[in-house]
Amino acid sequence: MPTLNFILPHWLYWGGLLVFPLVAMYLVAMQRRKGPPREPILFNAYLFWLCAGFAGVHRFYLKSWWGLAFIPFFIGVVYCNSQVREVRDDVSRTFAAQEQAQTELDQAAPDEKAKAQAEIESKRTEFQAAQAVSDKWYGGARAFAAMLALMLLVDAFLMPRIVRKLHATGQAGVAALAATTPQMAPPPDVPAIGTAEDPTMRMHTRITDAIEWVNVKAGEYVCYWAVISVFVYYYEVVARFVFNSPTNWVHESMFLMYGMQYMVSGAYAYREDQHVRVDVVYSHLSPRGKAIADIVSSVFFFIFTITLLVTGWKFAWDAVQNSETSFTEWGVQYWPVKLTMPLGAALIILQGISKLVKDILIVTRRKVV
Prior knowledge:
single chain
């Protein structure tokens, strides 16, 4: 198999982080308007085909046992590549010995030329033998891979028809099942996620709703970055174990991405009451008592978050002025990462203001709609 020398361009990394969540949010909104999709979904089938088709996963998703036909070829690719890795040391060692023998031949005295020439011929024979073994396994991997590529190409054209057939069969089966199955009681309500201790979560004002809309959208936006990591780490696994091509950018790009996600989504987590809370006393208070406790503790909250905003901005602005990049081979820009520190601090301060307004309204016993 050929090696993969792909290195993620910086523009593609930042562009993907900006554009992918927008596309995902649009597709989710469109699907919600259309209602639940019918399984199997053609998009999912092509996604499995693209990411794991070499193992027949797309066929298994389409409930076809033809997926088993892909597995022997995939195992063949992995096995041949493992043999290439095994013989790689022999190829390197014999090549180095051949080069050393050539150097000795060039430096040999006239009466030692014959002996040096015999030595280099011996080393060349060893290198050629090791290279021949490597080429044999490499050729086997390419043959298996070519067969897999041909099968995947055929399936790329067949999948729309398979999905339509399954939809037609599924509709008939659902209709028959509905006619013979008695009506069942609806499932019990599932409790909402969260501690449900914050008395302000069900309160609404125009100002607080506007602030929380911004934070909800920001949290929803960065949550889709987690989907990107699935594809990126999947690429790393395939590149490392199938193509013998480990990357030098996957780990760095993903931990930077999750660091930015952590900063930006903090306000959304605060809005949903998902941060860790020491509630030994708090949980036993009345709603008004909780609001008073939150007002008192908000002093420390704003001291911390305002300090984070100021110091984070200085930290980020210094990185912007110096066009700071990482010290790794990938050399990605650090200043966009550091800009999320003051951005996250600003969002969480806004959410703190929203909560403080609601707490004051509770304490003053005003009716809020």
